[in-house]
Amino acid sequence: MNVEDQGEVKIKQEADIAMARRAIRDLATKLGFGVTETARIVTAASELSRNVFKYAGAGVMQWRALTNGENKGVELRFEDQGPGIADVNEAVREGYSTGGGLGMGLPGAKRLMDEMEIDSGIGKGTRVTVRKWRRR
Ligand SMILES: Nc1ncnc2c1ncn2[C@@H]1O[C@H](COP(=O)(O)OP(=O)(O)OP(=O)(O)O)[C@@H](O)[C@H]1O
Ligand SMILES: [Mg+2]
Known about the structure:
By secondary structure, the chain is α+β, with helices and mostly antiparallel strands. The protein has a single domain, classed as Heat Shock Protein 90. The chain has helices at 14-30, 35-56, 88-91, 105-112; strands spanning 2-11, 59-68, 71-80, 115-121, 125-134. A five-stranded antiparallel sheet has the order 1-2-3-5-4, covered by helices on one side. The chain is globular, with a radius of gyration of 14 Å. It binds adenosine-5'-triphosphate and magnesium ion. Magnesium ion binds next to helix 2. Adenosine-5'-triphosphate binds at residues 47, 51-52, 55-56, 80, 82-85, 91, 96-99, 101-107, 126.
């Protein structure tokens, strides 16, 4: 697996979520993802950056363009130093929310992407990594 390109968008205010969405839309399009796949990736990025802003107040989205042989992919990593998640298995369940939301952000992102990893704990912040591959 090779990293072909990478960058980041800092998430500090509401408007940065739109910046993150735009950056990922451009990236996915450039990598040759179709309209539907691009929309899925953008939706996942939107939910995960919104969580960073809502629960941690600030953080960063790091993106990477990957290649694995013939396959191209995108990796997004959302990192914050916020309160962390006590029980990650609970948090990915549909309907689980401590923020008065629908509890669909994490399970939605998991469904929309090919791979998702969450590293989080109380007092150590949260890191969510998702990947999607373009098959050909
Ligand atoms: N970055 C984060 N830092 C701390 N807790 C988080 C973070 N992201 C998610 N969580 C926790 O996981 C729960 C589930 O997140 P999820 O995005 O699925 O739902 P939600 O944000 O509560 O509602 P929705 O996204 O549907 O509006 C949150 O309610 C919160 O407790
Ligand atoms: Mg959410």
